[in-house]
Design brief:
The protein is of the alpha/beta class. 43% of the residues lie in helices and 17% in strands. The termini are far apart. The chain binds nicotinamide-adenine-dinucleotide and thymidine-5'-diphosphate.
Length: 350
């Protein structure tokens, strides 16, 4: 039986990755290592928490001695590393949290693997989950490929870029078996409502303003989170060691068009008069250093591993809205307490 350590498994993407592994791979013991920051929520895994091949461990990847004990206690065969500080706006406010978790935390994990696997690298794998934001910002034309030069422009993307470089350096220098993927913007169930789509859903439900940064013309490529989790499972099993795979939705939207589509879906679902949600759209001060456009060329993963997105955006967005409407208590719980002061600071002064 192989033991797979997933970091950040109580977060948005990590919880979908854990569910996939636990349900599809009874031959794995899956350990979810998560520090349960504001973004970590064990409620996301309520349905699988009692499965015999699943175990939760609370701990901080910044704490090297904790990691070394964890690797001494368990024989870990593979790591899927998702734990990170993940929100650009928070990185603008508090860059050091991103430097610590995303860079130091990743190096600590690499060191723990190097030590634990020093006598036997065969069959081991360190899989690092990263973002398309490391490539910087595109103009109207072009797509990010795996060969695009890194050009990170926010403390978040710079910290992720740094961690990607360290993962590759450990592969080249020490022969650590690694694989990486860089994905576009995810959406779907369980996303914390600091990110655009769940924040807008929350505000529409409560008839609060929907804040759009700048003119709403920035473009993102959106991928349904379960498609990302499937891609991660595929790369973990079939990806070539040392290789990077870009994952994207082939689904570019300006923020304003995306929000208008969401507003139409919400009006229908909430049985409100057409145009009710759109009237909440409010343009606010732009994000500092706001990247204009992200778009991914995912031909490598599609040609080499046969992956492609399974859903259209319209279907995925409707599924997402349905999930948030059916799980309003989840939303109410995560938006009580500290979220209120975060929201006030981010938006009420804008
Ligand atoms: P998230 O913020 O929802 O979850 C992060 C998880 O990491 C949380 O459960 C949190 O408690 C945990 N964590 C944070 N600091 C930790 C620490 N020091 N020790 C242990 N656990 C810690 O993030 P997400 O959106 O699920 O993103 C997961 C990964 O995927 C990140 O590495 C992110 O950079 C990457 N990614 C995200 C997106 C996206 O659109 N959300 C796109 C591409 C890549
Ligand atoms: P976000 O969900 O924070 O993801 P990222 O910055 O990693 O792409 O933001 C997606 C886009 O939406 C981005 O262009 C910023 C914009 N945005 C708003 O216009 N208003 C908001 O309240 C938020 C959170 C984001």
């Amino acid at each position: 039986m192989k033991t797979i350590l997933v970091t950040g498994g109580a977060g948005f993407i990590g919880s979908h990755v854990i569910r996939n592994l636990v349900q599809k791979h009874p031959e794995y013991r899956v350990i979810n290592l998560d520090n349960l920051t504001y973004a970590g929520n064990l409620e996301n895994l309520e349905d699988i928490k009692d499965q015999s091949n699943y175990q939760f461990v609370k701990g901080d990847i910044v704490d090297a001695s904790f990691l070394s004990e964890l690797f001494d206690t368990h024989t870990i065969d593979g790591v899927i590393h998702l734990a990170a500080e993940s929100h650009v706006d928070r990185s603008i406010e508090s860059p050091m949290d991103f430097i610590n978790t995303n860079i130091i935390g990743t190096v600590n994990l690499l060191n723990a693997c190097r030590t634990a696997w020093k006598d036997q690298l065969e069959g081991k794998l360190f899989y690092h989950i990263s973002t398309d934001e490391v490539y910087g910002s595109l103009g109207k034309e072009g797509l990010f490929t795996e060969e695009t030069a890194y050009d990170p422009r926010s403390p978040y993307s710079a910290s992720k870029a740094s961690s990607d470089h360290l993962v590759r350096a450990y592969h080249h220098t020490y022969g650590l078996p690694v694989v990486l993927s860089n994905c576009s913007n995810n959406y779907g169930p369980n996303q914390f409502p600091e990110k655009l789509i769940p924040l807008a859903i929350h505000n529409i439900i409560h008839m609060k303003p929907i804040p759009i940064y700048g003119k709403g013309e920035n473009i993102r490529d959106w991928l349904f989170v379960k498609d990302h989790a499937d891609a991660i499972e595929l790369i973990f099993h079939k990806g070539e060691t040392g290789r990077t795979y870009n994952i994207g939705g082939i689904n570019e939207w300006t923020n304003i068009d995306l929000i208008r589509l969401l507003c139409r879906i919400m009006d229908q679902k909430l049985e409100r008069r057409e145009g009710t949600s759109e009237s909440l759209i409010t343009y606010v001060k732009d994000r500092a250093g706001h990247d204009m456009r992200y778009a991914i060329d995912s031909s490598r993963i599609s040609d080499e591993l046969g992956w492609s997105p399974s859903l259209t955006f319209e279907v995925g967005l409707e599924k997402t809205v349905d999930w948030y409407l059916e799980n309003q208590q989840w939303m109410e719980r995560v938006t009580s307490g500290a979220y209120q002061s975060y929201y006030q600071k981010q938006y009420e002064e804008r």
